[in-house]
Structure formats: structure tokens, C-alpha cells
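Tutorial handout. Part one gives the primary structure; part two gives the three-dimensional structure as C-alpha cells.
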Amino acid sequence: MITRLFMNVVLILCTLTSPLSLAVEFKNLFNAMQYNDVQISPSGDYISMRINHQGKQALAITDRKTLKFVGLISLEGNSEVGPYIWANDERLVIEVVQKAAWLEYTESYGELLAVDYDGKNSNLIYGYRSGEDQTGTRLARKQQDFGWATIVDTLPDDKRHILILSTAMSDKEDRLGELRKINIYRGNQKDLGRAPAPNVKIVTDQEGEPKLAIGLSQENEKIVYFNVDGQWQKVNNSLFGSAFYPLTITNDNSGFYALDNLNQDLTGLFKYSFADGSYKAVFTDKKVDVSSVNLTHDGKNIYALRLDDGFPVYILLNKNIPEAKAFKDILATFTGNAVSVESQTKDGVLSIVKVSSDINPGEYYIYNKKKNELKGLFPNSLNIAKDQLAFTEPVNFKSGDFTVAGYFTKAKQQAQSKTIAPLVLLVHGGPHGVRDTWGFDPEVQFLALNGYSVLQVNYRGSSGYGQQFLSAGYKNWGSLIQTDLKNAVDWAVQQGLANANKVCIMGASFGAYSAVQSTVLYPDTYQCAIANAGIYDLALLYTKGDLQKRSNTYDYLSKVIGTDENILKQNSPVYAVDKIKVPLFLAHGERDERAPVEHINKLKEALNLHKKAYTSFLIEKEGHGFWNLDNQMSYLNEVKTFLDKNLL
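Part two.
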């Protein structure tokens, strides 16, 4: 068994100061994870992580045994380090992201940079700039790739190549990608044929050969293809459920694992056999969907599942698999925490483990399977004592025909206080394919530490609770979803967790839409509303924003909000501001492509026309949500001022 005696915590890259006892530096809540995307090299010699270096994302590499720096990869100009992989024991492949001068957030243009662990021998192996002369090298000019690259397989047994999907640049997401084997040293490529459909996920077998693909049709229906003798063959959709998502080909190439809901409501783990075409359920929970899976070190078997029914729960499938035995011991060491295996060596001996909770944004450990030893690598840089933070508890209540789940975080107040704290109903975005989970949330902590209890609700339409619950939100954005939110407030009041006269609704994206729409439908339930990056005229979704780049936008929107102009108008708060009786706080990024600035402009015009009270907060360089830390803090300080004025 692992015991805490093994936890010899080694701090690298930072020095912790004493916890703040008298005051909280709230910026630390949003900048707690200075180290992220931590990985171990295939051989286990090096540990890599993305860090914030001089205001940009860079890649730091340390020697595992000495924990000393051996490399720092920081890109020039407006380029930064994005997601990355270890392609072999010495070389990494990085997705290059860029921040334009007029934006506060980075975007990917599909470029791939290969570089040695010590920062030497860098080569832009794919992208529109790959044909340009590269600073510090004498590499011959290569053909430019006007497209986006997606890594399909690292090809662990091939030291010089990875498999990518190259998709040509287009205003519409309707191009067929090309499978290519690309040399990670020189960048030369070998074409391996086209993908069967646009925007597909391709799954490879043990030898790195494409075996199956899944995409969406223009009618927004899943399409599945099998690769048979080098030819893509479309599979009858009836073989799989609506939630079908392939995970991995088995290590003997005899079949594959997938998450699915075939002939059932909840999404569970399934296994398909190529030999006889059988497709059998392996595990399905009774209450919630399977959230995620743990793969063995070779990526070809599954030993554990995560469920999110309130607190995270882990199900061990094959307890004879060495990883399963180790994971069981790790879970026992960190009882009451969320635990994830972030990266493993090729032989599976060493693993990077991340541990987090509602009061811990995340700490990293390295586990040695042979020695059954767990050592701390480095903690978060929260710089706030955990006892200063607020606990988050799962809750549930009845709303119509459903039991709706959520989370309640009680305001951090003096122990002797007997008053009920004001409540912020914090609504998540989406609405579909998204949900709230238990864990560290800096926005929740900011509100709780400033004296506000927080209620989060997985209203109908949220993911994680089965297809029936998900589809119950379709075409009910402005009606039944908002009723679920009101019922949540009523429940909190009945439970003595909230004061009916001190409730504010707050959210971003769809949460912002809900904040305003709820004050239209239930003008006496809320005392104020806070909306960030919201959509306020549903019909605009059909004509404005980045959804127009998708070939299946019309079919998706017609399914989830409908096409009836009168109903769209009825469910758009911009046309019903006369019913609003409470002050609004409206925030928006002027570069928002998902919810273009036309939405807030139309809402402000309507509010002005009806002489309704509101405060606006616009940031020129921000997009869908605020990415710049200073902008985040400015926004939240304005939120606090607004809440104090209207709830205290």
C-alpha cells in the first residue's frame, strides 16, 4: 500500500510564501496553476510542463532525477506554446498558438513545431510559415502547408515520424483532411490518403494504422467508418447509439472500446468485436453517464472509469491490470480528492498524477510502480491557506419530472454569524454537452470569499445525466431551463440556504442569456442579474458569429432552438425588456465571435428605449469571455461592487 510516508514533496520552479492570514490576494485564485499540461518523457528521463514565462506560455523541461532545468522553449514574437506531445525520448512536437496585437487570447492556425528537449534543433514542420527561413537555422525552404494539422498518433515504435490529419484552410469546415506521416526532424511528409468525411476523429490500431473514423453529417448526425483493406466503408448508424464516441483499439486489434448509449438512456462503456460484429455493454452506471476513462500506458486498454454523481467516483474494471492496482492505492492515499493520471512512460513504470479538490486547484506527483512510491513534484501557487477557502457540496432537488443536481458553496463568513448570506445563482454555459462538476472554481471562490453563497445547477439540457435529460433542454432554452433555475432558488430558500430577498443570477455565454431571460420570466425572483458574453437574440445565431463556419449549423440550431420566428422572438430577452424590474450588469468582449457584440448592442438599445437600469463593461481586445488576468480581475471587482450595491 502507498502511505503518506512516501510523500517526499519536492518544490521546483517556485518558492511558496506563508499563507495569507489577514487578506486574500484574489488574483491568485485565477493564477493558481502556473504549471499545467505536465508530462513525462517516454523513457522517464525528463518532465515537461507549460509555464507562464514573461507573459507567454512556454515549455519548461527538467531532468527527472535532479529536477534541474535542461531546457526552456519560448517562442518569438506573438507565438506561444500550445498543446504538445513527446514524439520520442528526445523530441517534442508543439502546437504553435498566436496572439494578435488586437486580441487578448491566443488562436491556433494548425502549425506544428518540433524541437529537442533542450530547446535545440527546432523546426517548424507543418504550417503556413513552414516554408519560410527560420531564425537560427540553415534549413532548406520547404513547401508551405496552408492548412491545420491534428495529431492522430504519435507512432511510439517509430522514432522519426508521427501521424497527422492535414485539413486545407477554408472559410467553411467542410474540407476533407489528408492523413500524412510527417518526419519530426525534417518535416517531409508522406500522403496516406484522405479522411472519409470532414472534421473526423480517427482512431488507429496497435501498429498506427487508421482503423475507424467518426464525424458529423450536414444533418448533424454521427457517421461512422471502418477502414477495410485500405478503403473507408460507411457503417450503418443503427449499430451505435447517439452518444457513440470511440476511445481506443484493443491491444490485440480485435476490436475497440467506446462510450455509447445504444438501447439505453445513460452513456456507458461498450466493446466492439471486429470478428463477429458484436457490440456489448461493459459498464453503465444507474444514475449518471461515464465521464472519462483511464487508459493503460500503451493506450490500448481501459482499467478505470470516472463518474460524476456529486463527488467524483472511480470504478476499477480489471483489477488484475497493474495500473488498476496502482490507481486503487493512489485513490486510497488521496481520499476525498479528484485524481487523474496525466502522463505515463512507455513501459508504464512512472506516471504523472494530478490531485485536486474544491479547495485545491491541483498538485502534481510522480508515481513509481516498481517501488510503489509516490513523490510530490510541485504544488499550485495559490498562496492562500486551504482553511480560508470555501467547501463545495453536491445538492439535488425536484424540478418537474426530473431530479436536478447541482452544487452549493456556502459563503465564507465569521463562524458566529447567524445571518443567511446573499445568494448568487451561477449558471454554466453551453447549454448542451456542458455541465458543472465538483472541483476548484476560482469564480466560485471569489464570490464565496467576498460573502456570497453560490448555487450551481445542472439544469435540463446539461450533459452527464443521460440522453433524455439532455434532449429535455432542446427548444426549451427560454422556458423549462429557466424554470429549473427558479426551482433551484426556491429549493435553496426552503432549505434555509438563501434569503428570498437577496438573490442575484449570474452567468457567461448561455449563462448570460439565462441571467437576462430569467429576469424576464421571473421578475420577482431575482434582485439583480450579471451577464457576460451573452446571446440575447436567438435568431442572430443563424446569421452572426463563428457558428456560420460549420456546415451543420442550421441542422444543429433547428434541433436545439427551432426555426419558428415567433418562438425565437418570444425566447429572446431583447424583445421583452419591458418586463425586467431589476438592475443588470452586462459585460462583453468586443472581439467575441461566438456571441458577436451585436447581441449586447441590441439589448442596450432596448433597455435604453424602456429606460431600464443597467451597467455595461466592454473590453475591446477580448473575445468570448475574458482571458487577460487583469481584465478578469477588473470585471470581478465590478461584479463585487454591483452585488454589494444590490444585495447587501
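Part three, for discussion. The two ends are 51 Å apart (CA to CA). The chain has a mean pLDDT of 88.
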